[in-house]
Amino acid sequence: MKLERRGKLVYDEELLGKTYVFRDRWEAGSKLGEACREVLGSAHYVLAVPMGGVPVGIRVAEKLGSKLDLILCRKLLIPWNR
Q: Is position 77 within any domain?
C-alpha cells in the first residue's frame, strides 16, 4: 500500500474508485491493520460494528496488538426514509 496524507485524511491513491480490491473481509482487515500501524503506531482498542466489521476488526486488532470490542447498534428509521 502506498499511503498519502491530506490533512487528517490518509488514503491509498491506487485504491480510489476501485471495487472488489480485497479477496474477503479478513484480507481487508489485514491491509487496514498494516496501514493503521504505519499511521498510528498503536492503539488501545479497536471497535468493530457487527456484522461485516467483526472480521475486519479482528485483523486490525491483531496487527496493532490491541484489544477488540464491539459496538452494538440498531438502524434508526426516519419516517420519510423507509
A: no
